[in-house]
Amino acid sequence: LRQSFEQELQRAGSSDAVEKLRVAYLGKKGSVTELLKGLKEVGAEQKKELGQHINALKRGVEERLSERIEEIRVAEEQREIEAAEQYDVTLPVAGDPGSYHPITIVQRQLEEVFTSMGFIVEDFKEIVTDYECFEAVNIPKDHPARDMQDTYYLENGQLLKTHTSAAQNFILRKYGAPVRAIFPGRCFRNEATDASHENTFFQMEGIMVDKNISISNLIYFMKTMLSEVFERDVKVRLRPGFFPFVEPGFELDISCLICGGEGCSTCHHSGWVELCPCGMIHPNVLKLGGVDPEEYTGFAFGLGLTRLVMMKYGVKDIRDLNSGNLKALSQFRHE
Ligand code: FA5
Q: Which own/partner pairs from 70-79 qualify as long-range (CB within 8 Å, at least 24 positions apart)?
């Protein structure tokens, strides 16, 4: 019986066929079941020994059935994988092949620039805690700087990230010092929108912490970044700026490339666009991140990625970038 079962099992090529076998051997009228029923007719002495044999046979059959089911499952999976591999992703697409969003294009370009300089790229959540967004970057409760960013609070007390600085503490704790990291992300602020302000926009934060990091390191990296993105000289200015998480802090502005610095609605007629505030990381922020400020220093910057994209491509109104207007967005092809 065992032998014929084994032969039939090998021939069963699908889970349905295996199920039929199960019925044929272990079902109500199955061969093994019949054997067990037959035990009634033998004497007590023989019953014990024979019973043990038949039960062992039954267990063996059950085991082999499950093994075969598993074999079939693996083989089916393999067949599916092979079929998928035959799908040729290099074939030309009929019709519009689509395009990347300009923010994605510039984000990837910046990621390449920074990774080539030894930075890692990190990701972070969009829903964060009050601690992550404010306290861990030296903005305690009741600090007036909280009003600098109008926050969307959720019912559970968490909030939508108002700036990518909300990830600083996470990065410092995860990697310790020394560390070089950039972390792009979407930010949300409850503010009135105009040509250069949206309630949803992208920033790209960067930090570099090591022994003896100074303002000249910061300026070098900012210059490199801008020349790589614009591939030409652009006018920038650095002025003092206040952020509780840096000391000293700076505002890095770029001469408005929409009007050439003459003044237009994009730059609020000032000729300058606030692009990338930055500074030396405040000792309290390092401490809260588990890094000793006596031993290490570092810089941080919070690049307005969406505004950088506007300047690079001459987009006059930030709202065009969030519009989902494919016709407008598809002009920006990836080189
Ligand atoms: C910050 O968010 C700080 N966390 C930046 C920072 C990081 C400073 C690290 C020092 C060290 P600010 O609120 O200025 O700063 O925003 C930074 C940039 O994001 C701005 O320069 C601007 O380019 C962009 N930005 C801010 N608000 C908006 C908005 N509503 N729409 C579009 N871009 C915005």
A: 72/13, 72/14, 72/15, 72/18, 73/15
